[in-house]
Structures are given as C-alpha cells and as structure tokens.
Amino acid sequence: MDTEFIHNYHSDALLSFRNYKKMAERAIEQVSDEEFFALIDAEANSVALIVKHISGNLRSRWRDFLTTDGEKADRNRDTEFEIIQDSRESLMEFWETGWQTLFDSLEPLTAEDFSRTVSIRGEPHTVVEAINRQLTHYSYHIGQIVLLAKHFKSDAWKTLSVPKNRSDEFNAFLVKKQADGGSTGDRFASVQEFSEGKIVH
C-alpha cells in the first residue's frame, strides 16, 4: 500500500470538498430569498432544492461511512426535491449539518481504511470509488447552483473563477505568488485572492 499516495489523495479530496462547498456558498450568498427559491422553468430545480438534495445525500452517504450502506433507510430522496415548510435558514442549517457529517467521516480515515470496501445501494465500492462518486456528484450540482446564481445576478455577479479576459494576469499573479513563497495549492483560494485584488507579499 502506497501510504504517501493515499495521504496525498486524502488531502486533495478534503480540499476539493471544502472548495466546492465554499464555491456554492459564495454563489448562494449573492442571491436574494426570492431567487433562492425561484424556478426558471417547470422542470428546473431551484437553488433551494439543490441545497436540500445535496444535504440529504451528504447525511445519507457519510453517516457511518465505513460500516453501513450509503443509502440509509431513513432517507426519503423524493422529498429532497420538494419545498415542505422549508425556509432558507432551515435549509442552510441542513446544508451545514450534511457537510459536517462528511468532514467528520472523511478526515479521520487512515491508510488502512482505504483498503476497505463500502456499499452504496448494495453496490460495493472501494473507499476511493465512493469518495470520487460523491465528489463528482456534488460538483455537478454545485455547478448548477453557480449557473443559477449567475443567471439571477447578471451584471451584478461577483465571479468565482478567473475573470474574463484576465487569464494572462492571473497566470502572472500565480508566478508572483509562488516567487514570494505563497502556496498556490488551493486553487479556489488563489482565484478568490486574484478576483478580490489581494496583494501577495
């Protein structure tokens, strides 16, 4: 077992989950309550529904991650796509609880844990497969949140990625940051520093 590789993968997975969570929250904080619940068409999900679905998935997949099936018996996935006496505040509390469940389960994993097999809907997964499954699933839905928020805010949108027509500036920013001894490993943080005009010393 290549413990260095596992350590690097584990660290990167944690950072990626944290960055996607932060990206979603930076988008969500830009929308009004009306926009949070708005449906752009009859088949679309609102930001609120995507938040509820991700939260329900987090709660189900990451509770007792190594020992029980990821699709818990007490999960009702269909209601994750319905607003049932839900407020923005209650949904964001559900969101925080879900993500905390993920980090509480993922952070303590050991190299030995990565040799184990876990089950999702009765299907066996290696721990890496299970993590990758959730990482790609959440990034897919968080992309939807960002797209909706950007649609609602239009010209008032505060970018979460490298601003248009500024790629060369961003690349120069990274070179200077590295030369000054700064870390560029957290890609989302570097983009935010650049977008917000922070000076790297």
Provide a descriptive summary of the structure in words.
This protein is mainly α and 201 residues long. The protein folds into 2 domains: 152 residues, dinb family like domain (Four Helix Bundle (Hemerythrin (Met), subunit A), Up-down Bundle), CATH 1.20.120.450; 41 residues, no CATH class. The protein contains 7 helices and 2 strands; from the N terminus they run ααααββααα. The chain has a two-stranded antiparallel ribbon with strand order 1-2. β1 and β2 form a beta hairpin. α1 runs parallel beside α5 and α3 runs antiparallel to α5. The longest helix has 27 residues. It starts with a helix and ends in a 6-residue tail after the last helix.
Q: What is the terminal-to-terminal distance?
A: 40 Å
Strand order of the largest sheet: 1-2
Rounded to an integer in angstroms, the radius of gyration calculated over CA atoms is 19 Å
Number of helices: 7
Annotated CATH architecture of the largest domain: Up-down Bundle
Principal-axis shape equals flat
Compile the SSE list and pairings.
Layout: H1 3-28, H2 33-37, H3 47-62, H4 88-106, E1 117-120, E2 123-126, H5 127-153, H6 167-179, H7 187-195
Antiparallel strand pairs: 1-2
Helix pairs in contact: 1-5, 3-4, 3-5
Brief rundown of the structure:
The chain is mostly helical and 201 residues long. The chain has seven helices and two strands, in the order ααααββααα. The chain has two domains: 152 residues, Four Helix Bundle (Hemerythrin (Met), subunit A) (Up-down Bundle), CATH 1.20.120; 41 residues, no CATH class.
